[in-house]
Specification:
CATH topology of the largest domain: Porin
Order of helices and strands: HEEEHEHHEEEEEEEEEEEEE
CATH architecture of the largest domain: Beta Barrel
Number of helices: 4
CATH class of the largest domain: Mainly Beta
Helix content: 10-25%
Number of strands: 17
Distance between the termini: 36 Å
CATH superfamily of the largest domain: monomeric porin ompg
Length: 364
């Protein structure tokens, strides 16, 4: 297949991804409703995006990713006073470069699979702790006692805003909601999981002594685990990751000519020598912060940053990235700019990205 044909094939894949993203959003809404009900009495964004789409690119190439997920939750509702929510997810993601260059995410994660089509799976659990501090427990006790006075012989139906309003009117309901809001701000949500990814690519190289061209098919892979802490209001997060990867790398492109007395030399340009196996052990630390909603005149955009530092212990290489989220809407469509730096190139790579969601735990 020619380079132009490969390019248009990848563009077509990206277009197909965009077309099916609406269907993926239907699955996402299930998780959004469940988590919103557990997280707070008022509406807010979901803690996690199960199904998502992202396209990002710069001068080093572009990468498209489509993720489908399924969820299983074990949620005790907030009104019970000592609620704990467990939200488990399993997802499958398909990624591919949309041009013939290396995928843009390579400099961010030291990822040896970013220049090929790959499939990954992830299993994770998000644990939402109880929101029943002393103040709220005291209020719940008062509400139950008041209910039993109003309805002798009956047991109070849990602990809720409706019960507070029935027993003490708007004043008690407001006091109860304020206690919940304070509890949400002080709690710490944990999020952890494991992942695996596998890719496939054909490598071409030349024999430096004969200029004979050869081809080798290789299957890079990666496994990893992560743990994250998320603030109770979901406006910040801190994530640590470990990944082990076995990938492959061609030699640097060059031109070689065979020694000859003929007036026309026999030359070849490309990678020379066999493909090398590269092992990586990558540690990374990422912070996320969404400080506020900014009024841009036509819409209120959610602005955020997600700085990340990655270290490859095998090669003693560093990578630093700073994505900046600049806009977002109610459908979850967001975009921004990002800058990457690596200790190998000592260059800053600038690019843009568009994602389907902007959530503190998205793609953790």
């Amino acid at each position: 297949m020619s380079e132009h044909a490969q390019l248009w094939t990848r563009v077509g894949v990206a277009a197909l991804i965009l077309a099916v993203s609406t269907a993926a959003q239907a699955k996402e809404d299930v998780a959004a409703r469940a988590l919103a009900a557990t997280a707070a009495p008022n509406a807010r964004e979901p803690l996690s995006s199960l199904s998502a789409i992202s396209i990002e690119g710069g001068q080093d190439g572009a990468t498209a990713t489509l993720k489908f997920g399924a969820e299983r939750n074990d949620i005790s509702w907030l009104r019970l006073g000592n609620a704990v929510g467990h939200f488990r997810t399993a997802s499958v993601a398909l990624s591919a470069p949309v041009d013939n260059k290396r995928g843009f995410t390579s400099s961010l994660t030291n990822d040896g699979l970013s220049d090929m089509a790959s499939v990954s799976i992830q299993f994770s659990e998000l644990k939402i702790p109880a929101t029943a501090p002393v103040d709220r427990q005291t209020l719940c006790g008062e509400m139950r006692a008041g209910f039993e006075k109003l309805h002798p012989g009956q047991t109070a139906p849990g602990c809720s805003t409706e019960l507070a309003f029935e027993v003490g009117g708007k004043a008690l309901a407001d006091q109860y909601n304020a206690a919940i809001d304070q509890a949400l701000a002080e709690r710490l949500i944990s999020y952890f999981g494991v992942s695996a990814e596998i890719g496939r690519r054909s490598y071409e190289f030349y024999d430096p002594t004969t200029l004979a061209k050869s081809e080798a098919n290789r299957t890079p892979w990666r496994i990893g685990a992560f743990y994250a802490w998320i603030g109770g209001r979901e406006n910040w997060a801190l994530t640590i990751r470990y990944a082990h990867e076995e990938a492959f790398r061609e030699g640097q492109p060059r031109t070689v000519c065979l020694a000859s007395s003929a007036p026309v030399l026999d030359c070849a340009s490309g990678a020379f020598g066999h493909v090398k196996r590269i092992k990586k052990d990558i540690l990374s630390l990422e912070g996320r912060w969404a400080p506020a909603q900014v009024d841009l005149g036509i819409a209120k955009a959610k602005v955020g940053i997600a700085p990340k530092v990655a270290y490859d212990t095998q090669a003693d290489n560093w990578a630093v990235a700073l994505p900046i989220y600049l806009f977002g809407d109610k459908t979850g469509l967001t975009g921004g700019v990002r800058g990457d730096w690596t200790s190998t190139d000592h260059d800053i790579t600038v690019g843009v990205f568009i994602t389907k969601t902007l959530s503190i735990t998205n793609a953790l």
